[in-house]
Sequence to fold (446 residues):
Amino acid sequence: MQVNQAKSQFVAVASIAAELSAVMEVAKEISLAAANAKAIAFRAGEKAKGFQPITDFINELAKDTIELVNNINEYAFHLYRLTVNEQRMTEACKRFEKVEQLAAGARYADSLTTSLQEVRLRTQLCHREFILQVSELLIKLADVMHPARAARVIAANSRIEASQAGEYLQSLQAVAESVDNAAQIINDKVHKCRSALTIINVAE
Amino acid sequence: MRMTKIYEGAYQWIMLGRDVHKPEKIIDTNQYMVRTANRCLLIDPGGIELFAPMLAAVLHHAPVEEITDLFASHQDPDIISSLGLWDQALPNAKLHAAALWEGFLRHFGCETIEYVPIPDHGGVINLGAIELQIIPAHYLHASANFHVYDPHAKILMSGDVGAALEAPGMPVFVENFDMHIEKMRYFHQRWMPSNQAKRAWIDRVRKLDIDILAPQHGRMFKGDDVKRFLDWFEALQVGIAV
Ligand SMILES: [Fe+2]
Ligand SMILES: [Fe+2]
Fold:
């Protein structure tokens, strides 16, 4: 791991963590919007009949997203640990090579060879594990896109249902709007995560 | 890294320091090695920047698998920031360091090495051939701070106590105590926070039979200079920044 590569790996992993916590916030907002919509639809009674099942569905989507992100957070943390380890071992390799050079001719110079080989091997294993985890994380991130995409479709449906809700039109439309926005934001954030990860992959 | 044998018997004490490759802005440090027939203890093994020259020097005396013990007098970076590297180089080593600092020192990386926490009242380091005493020196200057005393070789490794800052390449022993005072005064007045702690340490150390007082910076004191140092330090007011 070169210095710049290590830096970009740290930055990428940190930015994923940041994007994920933003996704979490937005998912919680959706969940709130769903509760809000449910209350309005309840008050609107007959007029918002078509809207009621939609609110439950929105709530489900928010829950799914939160669960997925929780799961992904663990991956992101694991990636961070791997990055720290790899960086430490790379540093150790560099220093051990320096020792070999300085200790040339020393009576016990060879005794370091095993440690050096082991650290090299562990660095490689660690890096392989990192790459593996990145590709798994990419798949998980694709999973988060699904509820977000579904939420957008639902938001479109909600607008149609809202139009039949008489005096509740505006508040229900606002709900649809906020779900749509939230889904769009999640979509963007997840895209950012994916491109951060792709940068790491490309850097290899 | 220059190596100076300071005790030779059934085992050896070697002082390592005065490294000519040391980056300029890094404080110069003395490291100490106690080498028995099949074990090796490194006392205050030093900072990350010093790791390569330090290990390279040690390899003249011991293979990595026989470096079985590390000791850190306190948590400072010049003492032990190399821990994460030793951790990957040494297959079977223990680190003897204050229990109080464990959660802090582990930030440097300590997974292979076994952390042996030293309680506040001190303890021993048993190297088989010789047992060394861990002497409390709390607040001199770190909150949890220890020195190593070898009753057989009569050496007290005194961490930052007795330290002096001077130009690189200075001799390893104090030659003229009176001329050495100015090189120690500010360091002790500024770094040592407590007159009370200082008095407690002096009372304790006066009871030990010491031939060589070996600090982590500057020169070692031997013979009568040890007593001169204790007298001087006793009279010095420390903790001057407040
Ligand atoms: Fe210190
Ligand atoms: Fe120091």
